[in-house]
Every structure is written in C-alpha cells, then in structure tokens.
C-alpha cells in the first residue's frame, strides 16, 4: 500500500475503534492524571499562571477526555484528529457537558491553524505515530509554528519499555514495527525516543527551557511507560 492508502486505513481504523469503545462502555471518560498534575500542580519549573482564557490546542484528542478537562479549566480549546467522525463524536460528547471546542481534521504535520495562535499545545501519545524521523521533525516544527512565542508544549510519548513494544520488530533509527497481538495497530511503524538525549536533539531546534520526565507504571501483567516533555517555543 502507498502512504496515502496506509494513512487512510489508519484514520478509518481509529474512528471505528472509538465508536466500538463508546458502544461497549469501554470509552475513556477521565483525563490523564499526569496531564492534570502538569496543569494544576507545581511540577513544572516556571509554570504557574491563571489558565482561564488561555488558548490551547489538543493534538490527537482521541475520545476527548483530555479536551474536556482543558475546557473545564476555562481555557479556549481547539483540537485536531485524523478523521471527521472522531471530531463529530467528541463534539457531541462535549455538548453533554455544556462545553465547546473548535475540533478540526488535522495531523501532527498539518495543523489547520495560523502561526502564533495558541498559548499551549498538548500532544498526548500522538507524535510516535509519525513512524519516521522526518515525520517527527516535521511534527515538532508544526507544533512550534502554531504556538505563540514562549507558548508552552506539553507532550507525552511512548517510552522504550511500554507494553505496545511486545513482539515488536526493531527497524533501526528509533523505528519499530508493532507486533502486539490482537491490536489493530499491529504492523504499523512507530517512532520511539530511546533516551532523553534524543528528545533534546529533536526538540531543541524549536523549544527552549526543555524539561524531560518519565512515567512508568507496572499494571500487574503489563508495563506502561511514557516520556514527558515540556518546553517553551523559541
């Protein structure tokens, strides 16, 4: 399959998965606890301000659980996803909470917003789907483009011991073909940062004051592992 066909299939698969999870009662309804801590706690050096009225872009918002949290803070929320059906589903969910957001079709490399638009950008477990070094670099550059000068990035990306890497095939240059059984992402190529110095390498051209963290949870049978990155647009 060519790249366009692969991307179309992936967006269709994600849209279907969210419909299934909603109908089965498995839909995520709570925001990431880590993201809540980053916005409301004092874990990030230099980040303590009144968020009400601040603009934020939620890239790859999925089921909208983080989007709803950001709106609850009084922020002006926008978001992008790779399929219109996902945008429609989350817009409907937000209406049930009397919330609104500007939800549009887009991707890491193509955000449908003007330069210097947002005070914050959240990319939560999204960037690694680019699958190539060029795609990751383009995504980071695009994140910086839509942020205001000194706008803050909050990013989570899969770490090297995450369960998604079970049975994966190493392709080189931080690239892995997903082999996790019974997962619709099987066969997709993901890009993972193998160490903090690589995060510095890729983000530092566009972001300063970088702070890098990591969350590792052993959930009985499986392990969850995420890099946490925040920084200010240069």
Descriptive report:
The protein has 234 residues and is an alpha/beta fold. It has a single domain, classed as Rossmann fold. Helices cover 31% and strands 29% of the residues. It has helices spanning 3-24, 33-40, 65-72, 84-96, 133-146, 196-203, and strands at 55-59, 76-81, 102-105, 118-124, 147-158, 169-172, 175-177, 189-191, 207-219, 222-233. The strands form 2 sheets. The chain has a 7-stranded mixed β-sheet with strand order 3-2-1-4-5-10-9, sandwiched between helices. Helix 3 (65-72) links the parallel strand 1 and strand 2. Helix 1 packs parallel to helix 4. The longest helix is centred in the N-terminal third of the chain and has 22 residues, at 3-24. The termini are far apart. Residues 1-6 have low confidence and may be disordered.
Helix-strand blueprint:
Elements: H1 3-24, H2 33-40, E1 55-59, H3 65-72, E2 76-81, H4 84-96, E3 102-105, E4 118-124, H5 133-146, E5 147-158, E6 169-172, E7 175-177, E8 189-191, H6 196-203, E9 207-219, E10 222-233
Parallel strand pairs: 1-2, 1-4, 2-3, 4-5
Antiparallel strand pairs: 5-10, 6-7, 7-8, 9-10
- The first-to-last residue Cα distance is 38 Å
Per the CATH scheme, the topology name is Rossmann fold
**Shape descriptor:** globular
What is the name of the CATH class? Alpha Beta
Strand order across the largest sheet: 3-2-1-4-5-10-9
Multimer state: single chain
CATH-defined architecture: 3-Layer(aba) Sandwich
How much strand content do the residues show?
A: 25-35%
CATH homologous superfamily designation: Vaccinia Virus protein VP39
- Class per helix and strand makeup: alpha/beta
Number of domains: 1
Rg (C-alpha, Å)? 17 Å
| Helical residues, percent | 25-40%
Order of helices and strands: HHEHEHEEHEEEEHEE
């Amino acid at each position: 399959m060519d790249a366009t066909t692969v991307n179309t299939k992936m967006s269709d698969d994600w849209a279907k998965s969210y419909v299934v999870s909603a109908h089965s009662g498995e839909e995520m309804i709570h925001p990431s606890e880590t993201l809540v801590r980053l916005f409301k706690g004092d874990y990030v050096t230099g980040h303590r301000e009144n968020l009400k009225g601040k603009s934020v872009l939620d890239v790859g918002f999925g089921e909208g659980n983080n989007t709803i949290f950001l709106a609850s803070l009084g922020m002006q929320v926008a978001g992008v996803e790779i399929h219109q059906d996902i945008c429609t589903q989350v817009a409907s969910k937000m209406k049930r909470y009397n919330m609104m957001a500007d939800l549009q079709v887009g991707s890491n490399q193509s955000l449908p917003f003007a330069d210097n638009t947002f005070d914050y950008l959240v990319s939560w477990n999204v960037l690694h789907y680019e699958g190539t070094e060029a795609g990751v670099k383009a995504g980071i550059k695009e994140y910086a483009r839509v942020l205001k000068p000194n706008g803050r990035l909050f990013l989570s990306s899969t770490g090297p011991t995450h369960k998604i890497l079970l049975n994966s095939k190493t392709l080189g240059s931080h690239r892995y073909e997903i082999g996790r059984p019974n997962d619709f992402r099987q066969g997709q190529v993901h890009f993972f940062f193998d160490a903090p110095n690589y995060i510095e390498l890729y983000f530092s051209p566009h972001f300063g004051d970088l702070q890098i963290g990591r969350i590792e949870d052993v959930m009985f049978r499986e392990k969850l592992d995420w890099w946490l990155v925040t920084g200010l647009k240069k």
